[in-house]
Amino acid sequence: MNIRACLFDLDGVLVDTARFHYLAWKQLAGRLGFDFAETDNERLKGISRMDSLEILLSIGNVQLTTGEKKQYAEEKNQIYLQYVSQMTPGDILPGVNFFLKELKANNIFVGLGSASKNARLILQKTHLEAMFDVVIDGNLISKAKPDPEVFSLGARLLEVDARETVVFEDAVAGVQAAHNAGMKCIGIGSPEMLAEADLVFPGFENLKLADIRFV
Ligand code: BG6
Ligand code: MG
């Protein structure tokens, strides 16, 4: 495969914000009177803010009006933003900078494909923004992963064919979105969780472009 573009999910792939999302949801669950376990958090990865709230409420068996849902989603976001406000380039996961630079040195486009409406802010806080040729975030898309929209739009703006594009994802819904877009997908995380991915690596540490070979 001739790789011309790599599209990266943000939360849990480039930075460990998946943890911040979890802590914020857990705090909100506490306020609503129930516990939110880390194992249940897997179901929220890659899912939009409102859809995540719906899943959380179903776990806690809590019913809210539309107005209350909006209010709680906003509250969760404020808690989350407190964590984000502390972020620095030191929060970039190990090996990420090295890998992105290797892609650039090989003239491979680098793009972001995230469901998060806070993606730009996080790229700014971590000084990663300049590395990206295109940024697709939750403000630009209307269909959540596993819909391919976020990645298809990224490839379209880069004018690269899906068959020449590789996606990096930590969420099952994200792996499905990549495949639905006709792209190869590299899972970042555990092989058990991301069994659908074409290749799985625990992270970017020691990862080189030459390691990316699809059979
Ligand atoms: C995804 C995360 O990247 O963004 C989800 O995996 C999150 O956990 C979603 O809910 C939306 O993020 P935000 O920042 O717009 O609330
Ligand atoms: Mg993610």
Describe this structure in words.
With 215 residues, the chain is α/β, with parallel strands linked by helices. The chain folds into two domains: 5-15 and 91-212, Rossmann fold; 18-84, Putative phosphatase, domain 2 (DNA polymerase, domain 1). It has helices at 17-32, 38-41, 49-60, 66-85, 96-105, 119-125, 149-158, 172-180; strands at 5-8, 109-113, 134-136, 165-169, 184-188, 199-201. Strands 3-2-1-4-5-6 form a six-stranded parallel β-sheet.
Layout of helices and strands:
Layout: E1 5-8, H1 17-32, H2 38-41, H3 49-60, H4 66-85, H5 96-105, E2 109-113, H6 119-125, E3 134-136, H7 149-158, E4 165-169, H8 172-180, E5 184-188, E6 199-201
Helix pairs in contact: 1-4, 3-4
The chain binds 6-O-phosphono-beta-D-glucopyranose (BG6) and magnesium ion.
6-O-phosphono-beta-D-glucopyranose binds at residues 10-11, 18, 21, 44-49, 52, 77, 114-118, 138, 171.
Could you list some keywords that capture this structure?
single chain, alpha/beta, Rossmann fold, 41% helix, binds 6-O-phosphono-beta-D-glucopyranose, binds magnesium ion
